[in-house]
């Protein structure tokens, strides 16, 4: 069985990768399985941040590493919170982030509440060989928290194609349509060439 390291500290992301990669015979390790590494996500784009995470971890661990940088892009907010999604209202506080999003969209009418989730996955090998893949899913921002599953902004994200909030989907349903699922399927198409 292959093992791949995903340079993430986010348990929600880790669980989604584990569920999607297990059927392919790939076991997932995360940063939680190693001694702490300091990573400064100071890039201006999703790809820059994913590259920083993957390169830092690959260098430190001397292993091939994948990293995921993702976020919510809201049209009425000119793309915010975007690359700042994790620290929109505070450091990794999902409840505070969601409350700030609702407040900033309070006066925005339904038809203007369009948004998408974006994921960039970057794979980096210790020799520096890099592989990049992207995914997105389109939707609307709801007016109240809806659903119990998932993490982050999921309870406020209405998935247009399913007519449900992201947090009302099972993990399997989310992986089928999500930004992360799409990015990972695109990544896996090129995985063998990158890995070998
Ligand atoms: O499927 C998702 N469903 C809901 N919210 C999501 C999702 N995907 C990203 N998000 C939001 C919340 C997260 O806090 C931020 C990502 O920030 P991002 O830096 O990529 O991840 P993170 O800091 O939580 O973990 P890490 O950098 O260790 O991988 O965007
Ligand atoms: Mg982060």
UniProtKB/TrEMBL annotation:
Primary role: Pyrophosphatase that catalyzes the hydrolysis of nucleoside triphosphates to their monophosphate derivatives, with a high preference for the non-canonical purine nucleotides XTP (xanthosine triphosphate), dITP (deoxyinosine triphosphate) and ITP. Seems to function as a house-cleaning enzyme that removes non-canonical purine nucleotides from the nucleotide pool, thus preventing their incorporation into DNA/RNA and avoiding chromosomal lesions.
Cited Pfam families: Ham1p_like
Recorded GO MF terms: dITP diphosphatase activity; ITP diphosphatase activity; metal ion binding; nucleotide binding; ribonucleoside triphosphate phosphatase activity; XTP diphosphatase activity
Residues binding Mg(2+): 40, 69
Membership in a protein family: Belongs to the HAM1 NTPase family.
A single GO BP: nucleotide metabolic process
Annotated positions binding substrate: 8-13, 70, 151-154, 174, 179-180
Cofactor binding note from Swiss-Prot or TrEMBL: Binds 1 Mg(2+) ion per subunit.
Catalytic EC class: hydrolase
Recorded superkingdom: Bacteria
Subunit structure: Homodimer.
Family annotation (CDD domains): HAM1
Cofactors required: Mg(2+)
Catalytic residues identified in the record: 69
Gene Ontology annotations for the cellular component aspect, listed alphabetically: cytosol
UniProtKB keywords: Hydrolase, Magnesium, Metal-binding, Nucleotide metabolism, Nucleotide-binding
Protein's UniProt name: dITP/XTP pyrophosphatase
InterPro entries: dITP/XTP_pyrophosphatase (IPR020922), ITPase-like_fam (IPR029001), RdgB/HAM1 (IPR002637)
Organism: Limosilactobacillus albertensis
């Amino acid at each position: 069985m292959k093992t791949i390291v995903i340079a993430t500290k986010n348990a929600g992301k880790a669980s989604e990768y584990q569920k999607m990669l297990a059927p392919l015979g790939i076991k997932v390790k995360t940063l939680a399985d190693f001694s702490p590494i300091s990573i400064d996500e100071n890039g201006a784009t999703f790809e820059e941040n994913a590259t920083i995470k993957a390169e830092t971890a690959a260098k430190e661990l001397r292993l091939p590493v994948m990293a995921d940088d993702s976020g919510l892009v809201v049209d009425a907010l000119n793309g915010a919170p975007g690359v700042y999604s994790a620290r929109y209202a505070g450091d990794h506080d999902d409840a505070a982030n969601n409350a700030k999003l609702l407040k900033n969209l309070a006066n925005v009418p339904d038809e203007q509440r369009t948004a998408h989730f974006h994921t960039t996955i970057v794979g980096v090998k210790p020799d520096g060989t890099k592989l990049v893949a992207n995914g997105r899913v389109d939707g609307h921002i709801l007016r109240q928290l809806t659903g119990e599953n998932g993490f982050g902004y999921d309870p406020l994200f209405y998935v247009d194609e399913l007519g449900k909030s992201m947090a009302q989907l099972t993990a399997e349903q989310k992986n089928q349509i999500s930004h992360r699922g799409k990015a990972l399927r695109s990544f896996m198409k090129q995985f063998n060439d990158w890995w070998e």
